[in-house]
Amino acid sequence: MTRTERRPADGVEQSLATSASRGAVVMIGGQAVRVIVQLAGVVILARLLGPTDFGLVAMVTAVIGIGEVFRDFGLSSAAVQAKTLSPHQKDNLFWINTGIGAVLTVVTFLLASPIASLYGDDRLRLLTEVLSITFLLNGLSTQFRADLGRHLGFGRLVVADAVGQAIALVAAIVVGVMGGGYWALAVQQVGQAALVLIVLVIVTDWYPRGIHRHAGMKPLLSYGVTVFLAQMLNYVSRNVDSVIIGARFGPASLGLYNRSFQLVMLPLLQLQAPATRVALPVLSRLQDQRDRFNAFISFGQTTLLAIVGLMFAFLGAQATAVVSIMLGEQWLEAVPVFQILLIAGWFQAAAYVSYWVFLSKGLTKENLWSALVTRPLTIGLILLGSLWGVYGVAAGFALGLGITWPIALFWISKVSDVDAKRLFLNGLRMIIVFGIATGASYASTLAVPADQPLLHLAIGSVALLGMLALEAAIWPRFRADVLQVIGARRYLSRARTAPASQASDPDAPSASASATSTDTPEPTTRTEKE
């Protein structure tokens, strides 16, 4: 079978605007369910397990997690940019990802003893051997997930992730209640990978067949290699902190750091992943239409940073109350680290838009060169910060991401026609707006007793929203941002009836596109530290 997969002409498929709009709604609804499940997991498991339990698992995942980057090898991202993708190419991609996953499972199993020696803790040997199976499971699921993303099957993706996550959490809780300690977290990771794979196989319309020698894989592999190398640098820069803390300060300190990081990543990844799944297909189709591309990516950035800013401003201002309620009194030592990592998380979200540009325009080599400059800088700052303990590591990580953001924007301004100045000003505006609101929320609860965390949250949220409302009233540009976020669905659907001349207006953009290029899956950009 040699038929290539092409995007139907306009009028045959639903408009891109409708697909993007519907996809956004589905993903937001699905992510809401996932957030509820993850919040339940954070709250319950933090009370069943201690910092050492989380630290032990984090020690292993920080080292072997680099295998996830190898396992994907940039091939799901290669499919994002491919203008055509034949069934034979899809089959080959499946077998490549599966083969890499199988090899990584064997290699990781054999490296279990050296990993335990690295940290000086023999408990990590068996734990590493058990967790190694996740590489094979994730390798099998990669192209099923990519196929759903390519055909905008967001609803089925959400179902697979939510079902796997919920059942795995229940299993982890059972093991934790039975006194299984850190094995509860191992059961959660392996169980989730297995369950997601099962559901994906059931809900996906495509099934792989044999290996095809003449399928024309070179362009896909070439693209994937450059994405892989950039992702490798990205992973190392974002996980070297865990390795350093685990090796120098022990599992208890790493457990505190890991839970702080988890509280930051919990809301952030629930926004970044679905935003990418919706935005990347649209941007790939608009890659040759400058005004519409700039308008859409500015809209996506503003929406992402507004939502992230609102959440992180509240979490940062009321960090003590949040940690007390979410994790319990025994975790209050993690509050300063949590606040520093919130800053890092915001800059990670701000820089993410550059990643969208690199991938959607096929600028993988430029993405790699950008990573070669920024990631070693972050690693160096983390190593330097470790001289001041766990707080220094967190500060080095945040500073590294803070520097990466403007460098990445400068880079895309040099290699593409993207309006980087507009993106920088959007981000700067959000820093100012939410920085002021954070200060107002924090100040509003200074007189509230520390043993009243719920009262802190209530008063702090009112103060935060009140200050944001005041800023919107006196700052027209921020007011326009708020209205744009509120009207996101209408904004995405505007192209359904808009004439071409209107769609090219950067201040009234359209998400629809003429039949030019790409059906797209999601990229693999895992950064969550389990």
UniProtKB/TrEMBL annotation:
<feature type="transmembrane region" description="Helical">
    <location>
        <begin position="190"/>
        <end position="208"/>
    </location>
</feature>
<feature type="transmembrane region" description="Helical">
    <location>
        <begin position="295"/>
        <end position="317"/>
    </location>
</feature>
<feature type="transmembrane region" description="Helical">
    <location>
        <begin position="394"/>
        <end position="412"/>
    </location>
</feature>
<comment type="similarity">
    <text>Belongs to the polysaccharide synthase family.</text>
</comment>
<dbReference type="Pfam" id="PF13440">
    <property type="entry name" value="Polysacc_synt_3"/>
</dbReference>
<keyword id="KW-1133">Transmembrane helix</keyword>
<feature type="transmembrane region" description="Helical">
    <location>
        <begin position="337"/>
        <end position="359"/>
    </location>
</feature>
<protein>
    <submittedName>
        <fullName>Lipopolysaccharide biosynthesis protein</fullName>
    </submittedName>
</protein>
<feature type="transmembrane region" description="Helical">
    <location>
        <begin position="93"/>
        <end position="112"/>
    </location>
</feature>
<feature type="transmembrane region" description="Helical">
    <location>
        <begin position="454"/>
        <end position="474"/>
    </location>
</feature>
<dbReference type="GO" id="GO:0005886">
    <property type="term" value="C:plasma membrane"/>
</dbReference>
<keyword id="KW-0472">Membrane</keyword>
<feature type="compositionally biased region" description="Low complexity">
    <location>
        <begin position="497"/>
        <end position="524"/>
    </location>
</feature>
<feature type="transmembrane region" description="Helical">
    <location>
        <begin position="162"/>
        <end position="184"/>
    </location>
</feature>
<keyword id="KW-0812">Transmembrane</keyword>
<keyword id="KW-1003">Cell membrane</keyword>
<dbReference type="InterPro" id="IPR050833">
    <property type="entry name" value="Poly_Biosynth_Transport"/>
</dbReference>
<feature type="transmembrane region" description="Helical">
    <location>
        <begin position="368"/>
        <end position="388"/>
    </location>
</feature>
<feature type="transmembrane region" description="Helical">
    <location>
        <begin position="54"/>
        <end position="73"/>
    </location>
</feature>
<feature type="region of interest" description="Disordered">
    <location>
        <begin position="497"/>
        <end position="530"/>
    </location>
</feature>
<feature type="transmembrane region" description="Helical">
    <location>
        <begin position="424"/>
        <end position="448"/>
    </location>
</feature>
